[in-house]
């Protein structure tokens, strides 16, 4: 069973690598890194779809829809953003000049310590590919009771570790 799961993940990663290498547009395909825990291709696809939908809302300045996708984790339980959290998030994001957004990286490490990096264009000149006037927004997909949810990446959040400073 475990070998089958690892094989499925390996095939999915290989297919993404082949598709992204054969694509004429460079840097348009998100980078998928292998998980340090075993996840199914269904998990990867679900997180990919959630993050892509969030990036689409964000890229079209539809921060209300993006905020409706966000959750917080407390005591191993998941909670959708409260109305106050959504309003605060929307207000902050509306101050950000946004001329496009796409998912750049997706890394699955564990149930609560993952990373999706979104690339956000801050000026109307150039493209997302030329890396001019770019910033990043980080999400942390979490899985609770077999269901994936999006949270904002926060090193102070429950279960999140800074893997870059070890």
Quick tags:
4 helices, 7 strands, 166 residues, alpha+beta, single chain, disordered N terminus, five-stranded mixed sheet
What would you say this structure looks like, in words?
By secondary structure, the chain is α+β, with helices and mostly antiparallel strands. 35% of the residues lie in helices and 25% in strands. Residues 1-27 and 32-36 have low confidence and may be disordered.
The span between the termini is 32 Å
Strand content: 25-35%
Count every beta strand, where a strand is a DSSP E run of 2 or more residues.
Answer: 7
Specify the structural class.
alpha+beta
Helix content: 25-40%
User: What assembly state would you assign to the polypeptide chains in this entry?
Assistant: single chain
Look at the structure and give the mean pLDDT.
80
The radius of gyration over CA amounts to 16 Å
- Globally, the shape reads globular
Could you give a short account of the major beta sheet? Answer: 5 strands, mixed
Stretches with pLDDT under 50, minimum 5 residues: 1-27, 32-36
H/E element string? HEHHEEHEEEE
Strand order of the largest sheet: 1-4-5-6-7
The helix count comes to 4
Q: How do you describe this structure in short?
A:
With 166 residues, this protein is an alpha+beta fold. The chain is built from 4 helices and 7 strands, in the order H-E-H-H-E-E-H-E-E-E-E.
Topology diagram in text:
Layout: H1 2-22, E1 31-33, H2 41-59, H3 63-68, E2 71-74, E3 77-80, H4 83-94, E4 101-107, E5 115-121, E6 134-144, E7 147-152
């Amino acid at each position: 069973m475990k070998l089958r799961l690892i094989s499925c993940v390996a095939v999915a990663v290989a297919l993404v690598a082949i598709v992204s290498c054969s694509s004429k547009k460079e840097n348009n395909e998100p980078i998928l890194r292998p998980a340090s825990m075993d996840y199914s291709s269904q998990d990867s696809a679900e997180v990919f779809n959630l993050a892509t939908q969030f990036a689409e809302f964000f890229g079209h300045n539809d921060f209300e829809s993006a905020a409706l996708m966000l959750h917080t984790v407390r005591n191993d339980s998941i909670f959708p953003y409260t109305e106050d959290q959504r309003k605060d998030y929307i207000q902050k994001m509306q101050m950000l000049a946004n001329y496009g957004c796409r998912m750049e990286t997706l890394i699955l490490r564990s149930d609560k310590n993952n990373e999706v990096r979104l690339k956000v264009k801050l000026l109307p000149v150039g493209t997302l590919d030329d890396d001019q006037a770019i910033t990043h927004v980080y999400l942390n997909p979490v899985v609770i009771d077999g269901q994936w949810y999006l949270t904002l990446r926060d090193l102070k959040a429950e279960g999140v570790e800074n893997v870059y400073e070890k």
